[in-house]
Amino acid sequence: MAPRKKASSEYKFPHPMDNETLVGHADTLRAFMDAWSRRDTHPIHPVWMLTGPMGIGKATLAYKIAKMVYGNVGDFFIIDQDRNIDKDGKPKPDGKVISVYTVRAMIDKMQMSSMSGDWRVVLIDSVDQLNTAASNAILKLLEEPPAKTLFLLVVHQLANVLPTVRSRARVEKMRPLTISQLRELCIKFIPDEDISTETLKLSNGSFGRIANLKTSGGDAIYAELISVLTDKRASASDMMNIAKKIAPDAALHGILLDAIARFGLAELYPNATRAIADIKNIYLEPEIGIFKIITEIKKCL
User: Fold this and answer.
1) Hey, what long-range contacts does 18-23 have (CB within 8 A, 24 or more apart)?
2) What percent of the chain has pLDDT over 70?
3) CA dihedral 202, 206, 209, 214 (to 10 degrees)
4) Which DSSP letter does residue 156 get?
5) Mean pLDDT, to the nearest integer, of 64-77?
6) Cβ count within 10 A of residue 246
7) CA–CA separation, 183 and 213 (whole Å)
8) Fewer CB near the terminus (10 Å): N or C of the chain?
9) Cα 224 from Cα 242, distance rounded (Å)
10) DSSP-derived 3-state class of residue 192
11) Are 23 and 57 in contact (CB under 8 A)?
C-alpha cells in the first residue's frame, strides 16, 4: 500500500474577521448591498441568515458585511465559541455549545451601548451551536429587534435552527464553491501544496474541508482507501489497516461516504450514514465500525 503522506500542521488560515479574501457568493453580497443602499426608502430586513455547508465562506461574508455596516463608529457584538462563557462569566470555549450566559452577556452590552444613532451589528457564528436556552434568548430579541440593529446569523444546517427563529430571518442559501473557486483559494492560502482535482472534488465545494484534509493527511488516506477497495488482492488485514488510519479522526469518517458516492453505491448510503453516526456511541474501538463499512463497500464492487 502507498505510504501515508505526512500531515502538515503548518497551515495558518486567517480568522474570518481578518480574512479580506472572499471568493464566490457574489449574488448574496449583491443582494445585501442592494437592500442596504435602499434602506432609507425601503427598510432593510434586520435579520439575515447565511446558510450553507461548513467551510464555504459564510462567516467571511458575514464579517465583510458587518465591517461595512458598523465601520469605525457603530457597535459590533459577536457571539461565538471564542467568547463563550459559563454561568460565572468565565471563558468556556468547548467548541460544541454556546451557552445562554454568552447571549445574555451580549444583550446586556447592547443595552449599555451608546445611543449615538449609528448602526449596530450582532453576528452569531454559528446558530447551530446555540443551546436551547440560548436560542430562545435570541428569539426574544428577534421578536422585537432594536432599531438600526442588523443581525447576521451564520448557519451550517438550517434544520438545526428553531423554526420560530428561521421565520424571523431573511434566509440566504449560499452554494458550495466551484472547482475553479477552490483552486483560487488554494493558490492564495496553500500555494506550496499541489492540490489534486480528486482532493478538490472530495471537498464537496468546501475550502474548509480541503484545509482539514491537507492538515490531517486525509487526502492521502482517501487515496489509500480507494486503492484497497479497488485491489482485488486486498485482504481483511489491508482493510483493517486503513480502518485504523481513518478511525482516530471523526472528521475523516465522511470519506467512507465519499467512497460510496464515487462507486455509485447509493443503496449503501443510508445504512453507512447510520453506522458512522453510531461509531462514537457503540464501538469502544471505532476501527471495528469503520472496518465493517469498508467490508460492505468491498462486497458490492
Assistant:
1) 19/60, 19/63, 21/60, 21/185, 21/188, 21/189, 22/57, 22/60, 22/61, 22/64, 23/57, 23/177, 23/181, 23/184, 23/185, 23/207
2) 93
3) 70
4) S
5) 78
6) 24
7) 15
8) C
9) 7
10) coil
11) yes
Q: Residue 131 phi/psi, 5° resolution?
A: -75, 175
CA dihedral 163→165→171→174, nearest 10 degrees, is -90
Q: Cell numbers 467551510 correspond to what residue?
A: 55
Domains, the chain, with CATH or none: 26-173 (3.40.50.300), 179-299 (no CATH)
Looking at the DSSP bridge assignments, the partners of residue 123 are 78, 152
- Backbone angles phi and psi of 107, in degrees to 5: -65, -40
CB atoms < 10 A from the CB of 14, how many? 11
d(CA 182, CA 56): 9
Selection from 116-120, 149-153, 281-285 with the highest mean pLDDT: 149-153
pLDDT of residue 11: 62
Report residue 23 as a C-alpha cell: 471568493
**H helices then E strands: how many in the chain?**
13, 5
Q: What is the DSSP string of 79-148?
A: EEGGG-B-TTS-B---SS-B-HHHHHHHHHHHHHS--SS--EEEEEE-GGGB-HHHHHHHHHHHHSPPTT
User: What is the Rg, in whole angstroms, of the alpha carbon atoms belonging to the chain?
Assistant: 22
Beta-carbon contacts of 127 under 8 Å, excluding residues fewer than 6 positions away, are: 49, 135, 138, 153, 154, 155, 160, 161, 165
d(CA 82, CA 97) in angstroms, rounded, equals 11
Classify 154 as helix, strand or coil. strand
Q: How confident is the model at residue 73 (pLDDT cuts 50, 70, 90)?
A: very low
Tell me how far apart the alpha carbons of residues 165 and 139 are, in angstroms, rounded to a whole number: 6
